Amino acid sequence: MGTTVAMAASNQERSFIMVKPEGVQRALVGEVIKRFEQRGFKLVGLKVLVPSKDIANVHYGEHEGKPFFPKLVGHITSGAVVAMVWEGKDIVKTGRAMIGATNPLASAPGTIRGDFAIDLGRNIVHGSDSVDSAQREIALWFSPDELAEYDPTVTPWIYE
Ligand code: UDP
Fold first, then answer.
1. Could you report the per-residue pLDDT of 25-70, keeping only the tens digit for each?
2. Which of 21, 43, 83, 88 has the fewest C-beta atoms lying within 10 Å of its C-beta?
3. Where is the binding site for ATP, in residues?
4. Rounded to the nearest 10 degrees, what angle do helices 29-39 and 91-99 cross at?
5. Which residues form the Nucleoside diphosphate kinase-like domain (predicted)?
6. Is the pLDDT of residue 91 over 70?
Protein backbone atom coordinates (compact mmCIF):
# COMPACT_ATOMS: atom_id res chain seq x y z
CA MET A 1 0.00 0.00 0.00
CA GLY A 2 3.05 2.23 -0.09
CA THR A 3 2.58 3.37 -3.66
CA THR A 4 -0.20 5.52 -4.99
CA VAL A 5 -2.52 3.46 -7.15
CA ALA A 6 -4.64 5.33 -9.66
CA MET A 7 -8.22 5.23 -8.45
CA ALA A 8 -10.50 3.18 -10.66
CA ALA A 9 -12.80 5.38 -12.74
CA SER A 10 -15.80 3.52 -11.30
CA ASN A 11 -14.91 4.99 -7.91
CA GLN A 12 -15.15 8.50 -9.35
CA GLU A 13 -18.85 8.59 -10.13
CA ARG A 14 -20.35 11.82 -8.82
CA SER A 15 -23.76 12.85 -7.52
CA PHE A 16 -25.32 16.21 -6.72
CA ILE A 17 -26.76 16.13 -3.20
CA MET A 18 -28.57 19.14 -1.77
CA VAL A 19 -29.93 19.80 1.70
CA LYS A 20 -33.14 21.71 1.03
CA PRO A 21 -34.28 24.80 2.99
CA GLU A 22 -36.22 22.68 5.53
CA GLY A 23 -33.12 20.56 6.17
CA VAL A 24 -31.00 23.65 6.80
CA GLN A 25 -33.66 25.21 9.06
CA ARG A 26 -34.03 21.95 10.99
CA ALA A 27 -30.27 21.75 11.51
CA LEU A 28 -29.90 18.49 9.60
CA VAL A 29 -26.94 19.56 7.46
CA GLY A 30 -24.42 17.79 9.68
CA GLU A 31 -26.59 14.67 9.82
CA VAL A 32 -26.75 14.45 6.01
CA ILE A 33 -23.02 15.06 5.60
CA LYS A 34 -22.24 12.54 8.34
CA ARG A 35 -24.14 9.75 6.58
CA PHE A 36 -22.34 10.21 3.25
CA GLU A 37 -18.99 10.75 4.96
CA GLN A 38 -19.17 7.71 7.20
CA ARG A 39 -20.32 5.50 4.32
CA GLY A 40 -16.96 6.25 2.71
CA PHE A 41 -17.95 8.72 0.01
CA LYS A 42 -15.71 11.65 -0.79
CA LEU A 43 -16.88 15.27 -0.56
CA VAL A 44 -15.60 17.25 -3.53
CA GLY A 45 -17.83 20.33 -3.48
CA LEU A 46 -19.92 22.17 -0.91
CA LYS A 47 -21.53 25.58 -0.61
CA VAL A 48 -24.44 27.33 1.06
CA LEU A 49 -26.64 29.64 -0.98
CA VAL A 50 -30.19 30.88 -1.45
CA PRO A 51 -31.05 29.56 -4.93
CA SER A 52 -32.26 32.01 -7.58
CA LYS A 53 -35.52 31.40 -9.44
CA ASP A 54 -33.45 30.83 -12.60
CA ILE A 55 -31.35 28.01 -11.16
CA ALA A 56 -34.41 26.45 -9.48
CA ASN A 57 -36.39 26.50 -12.74
CA VAL A 58 -33.58 24.74 -14.59
CA HIS A 59 -32.85 22.28 -11.78
CA TYR A 60 -36.48 21.17 -11.61
CA GLY A 61 -37.10 21.72 -15.35
CA GLU A 62 -38.40 18.15 -15.84
CA HIS A 63 -41.38 19.04 -13.61
CA GLU A 64 -42.30 22.27 -15.42
CA GLY A 65 -46.04 22.32 -16.17
CA LYS A 66 -46.94 19.95 -13.32
CA PRO A 67 -49.35 21.31 -10.68
CA PHE A 68 -46.75 21.25 -7.90
CA PHE A 69 -44.03 23.03 -9.94
CA PRO A 70 -44.67 26.66 -8.83
CA LYS A 71 -44.84 25.61 -5.16
CA LEU A 72 -41.68 23.52 -5.55
CA VAL A 73 -39.69 26.39 -7.07
CA GLY A 74 -41.16 28.83 -4.54
CA HIS A 75 -40.07 26.58 -1.70
CA ILE A 76 -36.54 25.80 -2.90
CA THR A 77 -35.87 29.52 -3.39
CA SER A 78 -37.31 30.44 0.02
CA GLY A 79 -34.14 29.96 2.02
CA ALA A 80 -30.59 28.68 2.22
CA VAL A 81 -29.69 25.28 0.82
CA VAL A 82 -26.44 23.34 1.09
CA ALA A 83 -25.32 22.15 -2.33
CA MET A 84 -22.81 19.32 -2.46
CA VAL A 85 -20.99 17.04 -4.84
CA TRP A 86 -20.11 13.60 -3.51
CA GLU A 87 -17.96 11.02 -5.25
CA GLY A 88 -17.58 7.25 -5.04
CA LYS A 89 -18.52 3.89 -6.48
CA ASP A 90 -22.20 3.79 -7.47
CA ILE A 91 -22.83 7.05 -5.57
CA VAL A 92 -25.91 8.00 -7.63
CA LYS A 93 -27.85 4.80 -6.93
CA THR A 94 -26.50 4.39 -3.41
CA GLY A 95 -27.18 8.04 -2.60
CA ARG A 96 -30.82 7.63 -3.66
CA ALA A 97 -31.08 4.52 -1.46
CA MET A 98 -29.63 6.43 1.50
CA ILE A 99 -32.05 9.32 0.89
CA GLY A 100 -35.17 7.13 0.56
CA ALA A 101 -38.38 7.33 -1.46
CA THR A 102 -39.65 10.71 -2.71
CA ASN A 103 -42.66 10.52 -0.38
CA PRO A 104 -41.18 10.33 3.14
CA LEU A 105 -44.14 8.33 4.42
CA ALA A 106 -43.07 5.59 1.99
CA SER A 107 -39.38 5.89 2.92
CA ALA A 108 -37.91 3.09 4.99
CA PRO A 109 -36.63 3.89 8.48
CA GLY A 110 -32.87 4.22 8.25
CA THR A 111 -33.08 6.43 5.19
CA ILE A 112 -32.72 10.21 5.57
CA ARG A 113 -36.31 10.92 4.54
CA GLY A 114 -37.60 7.90 6.50
CA ASP A 115 -35.88 9.15 9.65
CA PHE A 116 -36.53 12.89 9.43
CA ALA A 117 -39.46 13.77 7.17
CA ILE A 118 -43.21 13.38 6.76
CA ASP A 119 -44.47 15.55 3.86
CA LEU A 120 -43.50 15.27 0.18
CA GLY A 121 -42.70 18.98 -0.12
CA ARG A 122 -40.49 18.93 3.00
CA ASN A 123 -38.40 15.84 2.29
CA ILE A 124 -35.08 17.36 3.46
CA VAL A 125 -32.69 16.38 0.71
CA HIS A 126 -32.27 16.09 -3.05
CA GLY A 127 -30.13 13.48 -4.78
CA SER A 128 -29.51 13.05 -8.51
CA ASP A 129 -31.59 10.23 -10.02
CA SER A 130 -29.16 9.15 -12.77
CA VAL A 131 -25.54 9.63 -13.78
CA ASP A 132 -26.70 11.88 -16.63
CA SER A 133 -28.77 14.11 -14.37
CA ALA A 134 -25.90 14.20 -11.87
CA GLN A 135 -23.58 15.60 -14.54
CA ARG A 136 -26.19 18.14 -15.59
CA GLU A 137 -26.92 19.22 -12.01
CA ILE A 138 -23.25 19.45 -11.00
CA ALA A 139 -22.54 21.68 -14.03
CA LEU A 140 -25.58 23.80 -13.13
CA TRP A 141 -24.69 24.37 -9.46
CA PHE A 142 -20.89 24.34 -9.51
CA SER A 143 -18.12 25.74 -11.65
CA PRO A 144 -15.17 23.36 -12.20
CA ASP A 145 -12.87 25.39 -9.90
CA GLU A 146 -15.30 24.84 -7.02
CA LEU A 147 -14.67 21.08 -7.11
CA ALA A 148 -11.61 19.94 -5.18
CA GLU A 149 -9.04 17.48 -6.52
CA TYR A 150 -7.50 15.45 -3.71
CA ASP A 151 -6.76 11.88 -2.67
CA PRO A 152 -8.17 10.82 0.71
CA THR A 153 -5.60 8.66 2.50
CA VAL A 154 -8.37 6.25 3.56
CA THR A 155 -9.17 5.22 -0.03
CA PRO A 156 -7.39 1.81 0.19
CA TRP A 157 -9.30 1.12 3.41
CA ILE A 158 -12.62 1.70 1.65
CA TYR A 159 -11.98 0.16 -1.80
CA GLU A 160 -10.26 -3.21 -2.26
N1 UDP B 1 -42.71 17.11 -5.05
C2 UDP B 1 -43.83 17.72 -4.53
N3 UDP B 1 -45.05 17.23 -4.89
C4 UDP B 1 -45.22 16.20 -5.76
C5 UDP B 1 -44.05 15.59 -6.29
C6 UDP B 1 -42.83 16.08 -5.93
O7 UDP B 1 -43.72 18.65 -3.73
O8 UDP B 1 -46.35 15.82 -6.05
C9 UDP B 1 -41.37 17.63 -4.67
C10 UDP B 1 -40.63 16.72 -3.71
O11 UDP B 1 -40.04 17.53 -2.71
C12 UDP B 1 -39.57 16.07 -4.57
C13 UDP B 1 -39.33 17.12 -5.64
O14 UDP B 1 -40.59 17.73 -5.86
O15 UDP B 1 -38.40 15.78 -3.83
C16 UDP B 1 -38.82 16.58 -6.95
O17 UDP B 1 -39.62 15.49 -7.36
P18 UDP B 1 -38.96 14.14 -7.91
O19 UDP B 1 -40.07 13.30 -8.44
O20 UDP B 1 -37.86 14.52 -8.86
O21 UDP B 1 -38.43 13.44 -6.59
P22 UDP B 1 -36.97 13.19 -5.99
O23 UDP B 1 -36.05 12.92 -7.16
O24 UDP B 1 -36.60 14.43 -5.22
O25 UDP B 1 -37.13 12.00 -5.08
1. 999 999 999 999 999 999 999 999 999 999 999 999 999 999 999 9
2. 43
3. 20, 68, 96, 102, 113, 123
4. 140
5. 12-149
6. yes
- Cβ–ligand 1 contact at 10 (below 6 Å): no
Q: Indicate whether residue 133 lines ligand 1 (CB < 6 A).
A: no
Ligand 1 mean position, distance from CA 133 (Å): 15
Cβ pair 125, 32 in contact under 8 A? yes
Q: What separation in Å is there between the alpha carbon of 107 and the centre of ligand 1?
A: 13
The confidence score (pLDDT) of residue 2 equals 39
Residues belonging to the active site: 126
Does the Cβ of 68 fall within 6 Å of ligand 1?
yes
SS (H, E, C) 109-150: ECEHHHHHCCCHHHCCEEECCCHHHHHHHHHHHCCHHHCCCC
108-127 exposure pattern, b = at least 16 Cβ within 10 A, e = fewer: eeebbbbbbbeeeebbbbbb
Residues of the chain above pLDDT 70, percent: 96
Give the separation between CA 155 and CA 11, rounded to whole angstroms.
Answer: 10
pTM: predicted TM-score of the whole model, two decimal places: 0.95
Is 129 near ligand 1, meaning CB less than 6 Å away?
A: yes
